[in-house]
Amino acid sequence: MTASVAHVPRIQHDEALSSVLLRLARNHSASGHELCTLLWPSFQFWTRDTDRTASDALLDDISQVTGIDRVVLRQATLSELVKATGFREWISGCQRGILPVGVYHRVRHRFGQQYCPACLAEMPAYLRKLWRFEFMVACQAHGILLRDSCPACDAPFIPHRNHALTRAQCHLCAASLTIGECAKPTASAAMLQKAVLDALADANNHAATATDDGANERVGWHFLGDIGNAAYLDGVHRLCRLAARASDALPCQSGRSRTVWTLLRVTERAMVMAKVGRWLSNWPKEWVSWAGVSDLTQHYLEKEYGPWPGWVKPAIAQLPYSHGPVNVRRPRQKRCLSRLRKEHKSLAVYRQARAALLLTKAGLQSA
User: Fold this and answer.
1) Amino acid 347: pLDDT
2) Is the pLDDT of residue 325 over 60?
């Protein structure tokens, strides 16, 4: 395919669509906003999450200008990642499985765009799609925790402002994004991330079955051999949501009663994944013991987190159904004068029942 612009960068492995456009702008000594406004004036790139919401019409226009095949551009979006998870795809609002970036005009207020400082120090520096995945907390190549903000001023990483990606520096304070000590994830968090990525890769390649012994050997958890990839990802997602609201998983957040899993920072998600990893290493005994101490019930888990996958239900069945009435709005029999009048068509019978009710309420007659 013939391109109408020169110096089109070669798409790297797992590179995001916005990263390709930013590197193209850098090759032309322009900002991402300047280049996209010049080439595609009818589309707004940086006032929305383009990697997640890119339409077919937009991909067609980018393909015509850059000469990159439309199929390759589609694979650079996050839609293929969402399809591999098996989660329902949403265009507006937050997408399950994808970290939100909180776009407001061209500024981002959430910390959903993660990065590896060691990867940004390499050439070429580009964004990986997996950095937006909710279970991604450590770099696969370097084994260190990802970052989601500037190490100097803690501002969210906004790749398209002030050449933050191509220069590997903060858009706000211009500090280097590659400096500072890099932490490492715990063994349980790393093990859970590996298990999730293995299931994601199998689902993406359509090579795994419900009885994939290879996946069982990779992660070392005995119960995974009979679980499908979509069911496994769904269950882990719900367990992480549950663990995120537990004070023993996030001690610093113990004062908050409703902590949202996808809005957590990378270090907090690593702690939550470490707890879920410990649950799965001794499943279901470890989780059932924790749920019993936390006074969880079957009714609460079904009401708050929806239908659980089949591999989690036997563990939930070991909990009590509820600690009390489960329908607080159930109809109650109220003994009142208006109800008595409706129940008794005879005026004489109504008067007798009315007198008895008044005596009962006054304490002069037992019910």
Assistant:
1) 87
2) yes
